[in-house]
Amino acid sequence: MRVALDVPLRRLFDYRVPADAHRELRPGMRVRVPFGRFRSIGLVMETADSSDVPPEKLKPVIEILDSHPVMDAAALELVRWAAEYYHHAIGEVLAAALPKALRLGAAPTATSECWAVTAEGQAAFERGEPRRAPRQRELLSRLIEMGGATAERLAELDPNWRAAARPLVARGWIASSDEPETVAEEPFRVLPSDLVPSAEQAAAIEAVCESMGRFGVFVLHGSTGSGKTEVYLRTVERALARGQRALVLVPEIGLTPQLVGRFRARFETPIAVLHSGLTDHERLVAWRDAYSGRARIVIGTRSAVFAPVPDLGIIVVDEEHDASFKQHEGGFHYSARDVAVVRARRAGVPVLLGSATPALETLHNVIKGRYVRLTLPRRATQAEPPRMSLIDLRTCAVRNGISTPAVEAIQRHLREDGQVLVFLNRRGYAPTLLCTACGWIAPCRDCDARLTVHRAAGRLRCHHCGADAPLPERCPQCGFGVKPVGQGTERIEETLAELFPDVPLVRLDRDVVRRRGDMEAAMSRMASGEARILVGTQMVTKGHDFPNVTLVVVLNADQGLFSTDFRAPERLAQTIVQVAGRAGRGTRPGEVLIQTEFPEHPLLRSLLTEGYEGFARTALAERAQASWPPYCRLAAVRTSARNAQDAITFLEEARAVAQVPKNVRILGPAPAAMARRAGRYHAQLLVESPDRTALHRFLDAWLPQIEQLRSSRRVRWALDVDPIELF
Ligand SMILES: [Zn+2]
Ligand SMILES: [Zn+2]
């Protein structure tokens, strides 16, 4: 049989089943096996009789951990597909798919500790033993009377029962075992809602429901507040009514408590919630609820795409464009959205991709007829879409990053009793600390980056490696006074407080939101109207309603326009549209002001005049011309090393050994735009092809070759298929 082990090798390992194995072995079960000098827990992928390893060299399995597979055939197939598509070690794919506790051997179903009397204990009791220990005798008698009991029940009867149990265990008179808890089928109930779906919502719900039991990809395109969640709820309800279960994927859960809340308010049924903030034990408990089928709805972030969902009926991916669906860290770079589509296809169920700003890839699939678009227009009860306009930073006075027209607009909206949202995607006080006498700039020792001034904390911090130092008052080079240059949210907050001394304001970024609940507190100050101005980063764009915000100011649109990453403008447009979605809800129309030094930029112009739709058309045309995705398939090999040359040399050698077919192109190697980060040098090589099959066939042949390269030992490297961030 062949076992997947959690090691970074793209292969399975052969073992034999001992003749005296007391359990039948099936794929998806866990086994304990010898591996090198250690023991390891692996997952059985195949139970083949034959092996390339000679039988006398095959090591036997030490222990079979499960009586039922922890992953069913469909789940194993999905993992196998992901390992192949992302060209990644299957053991590490499994590590992403299974909770850590399970990989360490925890039982897949909740168990309870059950105690019973042994035959010896029964005989001893009948002889009248134990004679001089009344509490032990009482426990023994109780267990005989009850025919065994759980530890929980025994503790209810006597909180100190374990003291009495110990000597009985030592004499072999009582014993415990872990028995699986039985899961009672709980009926679900849909709680009444007075929301009446609009005609468009009803049509969308109908389209998805007609596809129940069949594969189909539906793109639910609707602005913030257009009622996407209601479509999720009603389609999930339909799947549950068919006796099936639902999987709902969301971006980072800390940012979408409202969605989970809506599901809980609608369905009276256990909901398993899986996200990165859980402890190992909490994760195991949630996974078990999903695995046993007790939870009819599983809601989770990225890795929940691999969660067990028996009788899966529908998959929903909310905010499908969100970058958090793509794994960036570690070696296994997968896209949960793309895996969700593959999972739905294999399970033969519909998948619903919702967004106000669908990814360009997704829109391209709509154009190609592969996905069906369902559009939700703004509701009649909603205000008109906000008026967007540009402020040309070259022609007006600017004070600490805020232009005079923006200040005047804020004044006007506050006077008219509105709330204001000021967006800047840069936290800290200022991005640079400069000595005006000698030109010294506070650098990060380990990165090609400047240190950011955090004035309130009195620190200089690197946002790339986390380096942290006290904030100096004088230049370490010449002793002259230093000054912070440029703006972060902390400084904008200060400037606004000076401009509007009587207006309460609140800031929202990673520096002020440290614990769970901080964010809710800030949000509620804004929602209650206590605060009038909100200053924040990306965080303000996610899933929260501010019905009284009438003005949104985007302080700097230019970071996204001129980046080495071809996806930067897409992210910029998505952010602007998402932030703008906060304006003019309720009944008042909103206003959005975007500060830029490039008011003639074609992407900004198309966004302004034709909205996201128009932007997407322009941006897709640009991508087609440059043959970037979705008009080609891309994979990136990234390296990092202690010295700059090593990072490049490996990629050069990798390129040299490649036998590149006609329709595949290799670009690079090139150092990253910020080559040095956290003391390591980064570089990348891109592999590009218009033909997905050709690209993967090439990678299949090429990767084993570059794994053999001697220079690979001096670097850390990883392959990223369909990368969404380039550097
Ligand atoms: Zn100086
Ligand atoms: Zn740094």
List its salient traits.
single chain; 727 residues; GIY-YIG endonuclease; Rossmann fold; 7-stranded parallel beta sheet; 6-stranded parallel beta sheet; 20 helices; binds zinc ion
Description:
The longest helix is centred in the last third of the chain and has 25 residues, at 602-626. The radius of gyration is 30 Å and the shape is globular. It is built from 20 helices and 34 strands. The chain starts with a strand and ends in a 6-residue tail after the last strand. Helix 1 (73-85) crosses helix 2, helix 8 packs parallel to helix 9 and helix 17 (568-580) runs antiparallel to helix 18. The strands form 9 sheets. Strands 13-14-11-15-16-10-17 form a 7-stranded parallel β-sheet, sandwiched between helices. The protein has a 6-stranded parallel β-sheet with strand order 18-30-29-21-28-27, with helices on both faces. A 5-stranded antiparallel β-sheet has the order 2-1-4-3-5. It folds into 5 domains: 2-103, PriA, 3(prime) DNA-binding domain (GIY-YIG endonuclease, 3-Layer(aba) Sandwich); 115-180, no CATH class; 193-376, 3-Layer(aba) Sandwich (Rossmann fold); 387-430 and 486-623, P-loop containing nucleotide triphosphate hydrolases (Rossmann fold, 3-Layer(aba) Sandwich); 633-721, Alpha-Beta Plaits (2-Layer Sandwich), CATH 3.30.70.360. With 727 residues, it is of the alpha/beta class. The mean pLDDT is 90. It binds zinc ion (2 copies). One zinc ion binds at residues 444, 446-447, 449, 462, 464-465, 467, 678.
